[in-house]
Amino acid sequence: MQSSNNRNSTPNLSLSKIGWIAGVFFIIIILAKSSTTIRSGQAGVLYKTFSNGVVTDQTFGEGFHIIAPWNKMIIYEVRQQEVFEQMSVLSSNGLEIKLDASAWFQPQYENLGKLHQQKGEDYIQRVLLPTIRSAARSVVGRYTPEQLYSSKRDAIQNEIYEEAKRIVEKQHLQLNEILVRDVTLPTTIKDAIERKLRQEQEALEYEFRLVKAKKEAERQKIDAEGKAVANTILSASLTDKILKEKGIDATLELAKSNNTKVVVVGSGQDGLPLILGNQ
User: Fold this and answer.
1) Which residues pair with 220 in a beta bridge?
2) With b meaning 16 or more CB within 10 Å and e meaning fewer, what string describes 245-258?
3) Bridging pattern class, strands 42-48 and 96-107
4) Distance CA 199, CA 152 (A)
5) Could you give the 3-state DSSP secondary structure of residue 35?
6) In the chain, what are the domains?
7) Helix ranges (DSSP H) in 142-186
8) Which pLDDT tens digit goes with each residue over 92-105?
9) Model pTM score
């Protein structure tokens, strides 16, 4: 009789053990479904299945969060991101220009729920890239190929940024910068522009040389006129008596030389002293 009771209790213990293990697994599954971890540089949007859907007035930050198992947390990257775009646009005279640009952007943190509700997780394709293309076409269409190639690239970049920014701000996005990385013109247009730029550079260099030569000629003229005036003044001030006096002074200096032998005073031309015996 006792042996029979032992045999009956063994299945009961096995069923109890199985039930306990199943309960543990159920709890683990519930906890896994009820928790989520948001990593650095991310934020979450909560979707409540049995309530009003997307929670638009709260953005969930980094860390561990407990949610009801029937709800869902959608994770977004909220750090600055970069997207590249290659576009074909038309200049003011209808020529096709290829434009390579990139955009730095990030979702507006406080409006992340609205972004998810209105645009969804593929907001880059739905909002950002179409906006950049539209702004680029609008801006480039105001300029000639020559302006795009040379002096107006910074202005174009800033204008595209300002136009795109005004649009995406209303779509819960923050646009930080637009960078125009390359502007590619048709080969024939590019060659013509480069030739024109070379000719303009050569003309500027030639004009510079002309100006320099003209200034040098003016300098030489002023120098010559100054010397002529000086000579005129000097000639007017030199009388015969002054010349004789300077001649005597010069002769006396020569007489002091060791090579001078005889000095005859008053025997030279114009009554100047005459030096004899100079070796």
Assistant:
1) none
2) eebeeebeeeeeee
3) unpaired
4) 20
5) strand
6) 2-77 (no CATH), 81-185 (3.30.479.30), 240-276 (no CATH)
7) 145-149, 153-168
8) 888 888 899 999 99
9) 0.60
> 122 vs 58, 92, 131, 180, 225, CA distance in Å?
20, 33, 14, 24, 82
Q: Comparing 31 with 202, which gets the higher pLDDT?
A: 202
* CB 151 within 8 Å of CB 101: no
Task: Tell me what pLDDT residue 2 has.
Answer: 47
Cα dihedral 128, 133, 134, 139 in deg (nearest 10): 120
pLDDT in the model for residue 247: 67
Q: Please give the structure tokens belonging to residue 59.
A: 């953005």
Give the mean pLDDT of the chain: 80
Q: How far apart are CA 275 and CA 279, in angstroms?
A: 11
d(C-alpha 161, C-alpha 80), whole Å: 16
Of residues 204, 89, 196, 68, the one with CA closest to residue 138: 89
* Backbone angles phi and psi of 185, in degrees to 5: -100, 160
Point out which residues pair with 90 in neighbouring strands: 96
What's the confidence (pLDDT) of residue 237?
65
